[in-house]
Structure formats: C-alpha cells, structure tokens
UniProtKB/TrEMBL annotation:
<dbReference type="Pfam" id="PF00909">
    <property type="entry name" value="Ammonium_transp"/>
</dbReference>
<feature type="transmembrane region" description="Helical">
    <location>
        <begin position="237"/>
        <end position="260"/>
    </location>
</feature>
<keyword id="KW-0812">Transmembrane</keyword>
<feature type="transmembrane region" description="Helical">
    <location>
        <begin position="168"/>
        <end position="186"/>
    </location>
</feature>
<feature type="transmembrane region" description="Helical">
    <location>
        <begin position="206"/>
        <end position="225"/>
    </location>
</feature>
<comment type="similarity">
    <text>Belongs to the ammonia transporter channel (TC 1.A.11.2) family.</text>
</comment>
<keyword id="KW-0813">Transport</keyword>
<dbReference type="GO" id="GO:0005886">
    <property type="term" value="C:plasma membrane"/>
</dbReference>
<dbReference type="GO" id="GO:0008519">
    <property type="term" value="F:ammonium channel activity"/>
</dbReference>
<keyword id="KW-0924">Ammonia transport</keyword>
<feature type="transmembrane region" description="Helical">
    <location>
        <begin position="26"/>
        <end position="47"/>
    </location>
</feature>
<feature type="domain" description="Ammonium transporter AmtB-like">
    <location>
        <begin position="1"/>
        <end position="257"/>
    </location>
</feature>
<dbReference type="InterPro" id="IPR024041">
    <property type="entry name" value="NH4_transpt_AmtB-like_dom"/>
</dbReference>
<keyword id="KW-0472">Membrane</keyword>
<dbReference type="InterPro" id="IPR018047">
    <property type="entry name" value="Ammonium_transpt_CS"/>
</dbReference>
<feature type="transmembrane region" description="Helical">
    <location>
        <begin position="137"/>
        <end position="156"/>
    </location>
</feature>
<dbReference type="InterPro" id="IPR029020">
    <property type="entry name" value="Ammonium/urea_transptr"/>
</dbReference>
Length: 266
C-alpha cells in the first residue's frame, strides 16, 4: 500500500517535489512502526477503559500469538498517516510532517481503533461495525487531511489561477494499480484468520466485494467524466482511477457475509 501511495502522489505533483514526497511516504513506515510499537498498540488494544487502552507499552506483555495482529494493525496505522501526505503535498514543512505522522500513528489512530475494534470499546459496544477500516482508517485520514489543509490555508495571490498538473500520469497509474492490488490484502486480511473451517469462503467473499466495489465505482466515474457530470467531457483517467479506489474504500465497512447482490443496495 505504501508503494502505491508514494507512486500515486509522486506522479501527481511537480518534478521538483518528487523526492520530498517519496521521502515522506518512506518515513511514514519507519515513524509509524516506532510510534505504534511504543504506545500505539497499547492505546488501541491494551486493557483499559472504553476510551483508551493502558497496557502493552513498548510491546511488553503482548502474547506471542498477537504479533501478527500487531503487524497488521501497524500497517493500518501507517496507512492512516500517509493519507494526509497527499493533502499537504508540496505544502507541509518537513519537520511538521514527521511530528504529525508520529501523532496520528501513535495516538489518534490507536485511540479511534480502540473505540471501534477493541473489546469494551465504546463504539463497538453500541453496535458500530467497521469490518476493514472505512471509518477508522480512511475517514480518519480524510478528516485529518481536511484539518491539515485548513491549517495550511490557501496561497491566495502567490500563483496564477491555473491548474498545476502532475508531472507523470503513468506513475499515477502504477501507484493506483498497486493500491488496487493492495486493497485485496488490506480487506481480505481484516478477517484475521485463514485457518478456520469457513475462512476460505469468507475471504473470497471479502475480495469479491472489494473487486465489485472498485470496478463498479470506476465504471460510474468513467461515465460521469465522459458525459460532463464531473467536469469537461472526456475519458478522464484520474477520475476513473479515483472512482476505483473510492469504491474499494466504500465497501470496507461490510462484513464478509454481505452478498454481492446486495452491494448496490448498500
């Protein structure tokens, strides 16, 4: 997933900032790993109260059979952090980016995931369901992106009112395809096991839902672009790719037993 985000963002910006954005995406992995190991997993899945966990600091006391869960959740934390990098591309101070990445992956995402997935979390006790992180990862990342963009503010008067196109559409496409492939594991792995009796059929349903969600949304975006519903009439590559990614994110809340025939109802 991180490679996909890095390529997509690098292709969407000007050439002079490509090294910077790739560096930030790479640092997301390193910073998120350390932050999630030190305090993040404790906040997310440690024993505590309905708001926050308070054990497993720096990995202490994590059962051996939970390390795979730690790794998978660290990837989710890194994803939540890196979503914001696209919103602040070419804008955010490098040191500020490092700080925010540590805060999101070590504090904000873990606390929210405790509410949603940890035993005794207040949202899960109220019946809230988020199978693979549509809200806990992607909505959270989007909300943080909005706040970051608002804090940075507009650069009124600095540039002419003309669009600044990215330097490499092929790189955007490669990144998008990597993300599309990564979403299959991102969603399928959220089941948490492949060894139970019905795990195979459940994972196949999750992946099928993911594919149908992405392809149907991509088709709608393609038609919207060609008919002028989303800007000038054209076969819009970027719009179609974003549609595919949006569709895959949109199906994340649904559990593996959601039938394909009910996808459009959802």
């Amino acid at each position: 997933m991180q490679c996909g985000f890095a390529c997509l963002e690098a292709g969407s910006i000007r050439t002079k900032n490509v090294t910077n954005i790739i560096m930030k995406n790479m640092l997301d992995i390193f910073i998120s790993c350390l932050a999630y190991w030190m305090v993040g997993y404790a906040f997310a899945y440690g024993r505590g109260n309905p708001f926050i966990g308070l054990t497993y600091w720096a990995g202490a006391g994590i059962p051996k059979n939970k390390y795979s869960h730690w790794f998978f959740q660290f990837v989710f934390a890194a994803t939540a952090a890196t979503i914001v990098s696209g919103a602040v591309a070419e804008r955010c101070n490098f040191v500020a980016y490092i700080v925010y990445s540590a805060v999101i992956s070590g504090v904000i995402y873990p606390v929210v995931s405790h509410w949603v997935w940890a035993k005794g979390g207040w949202l899960i006790d109220m019946g809230y369901t988020d199978f693979a992180g549509s809200g806990a990862v992607h909505l959270l990342g989007g909300a943080c992106s909005l706040i970051a963009a608002m804090l940075l503010g507009p650069r009124i008067g600095r540039f002419e009112r003309v669009e600044m196109p990215g330097h490499s559409i092929p790189l955007v496409g490669i990144g998008g395809l990597i993300l599309i492939t990564g979403f299959l594991a991102f969603n399928g792995g959220s089941l948490g096991t492949i060894t139970t009796f019905d795990a195979g059929s459940s994972i196949s349903m999750v992946i099928s839902n993911t594919v149908v969600g992405g392809t149907s949304a991509a088709g709608i975006a393609l038609i919207a672009g060609r008919t002028g519903l989303a800007g000038p009439k054209s076969w819009n590559f970027s719009l179609t790719l974003n549609g595919a990614l949006t569709g895959m994110v949109g199906v994340l809340p649904f559990k593996s037993w959601i039938a394909l025939k009910n996808y459009f109802k959802a």
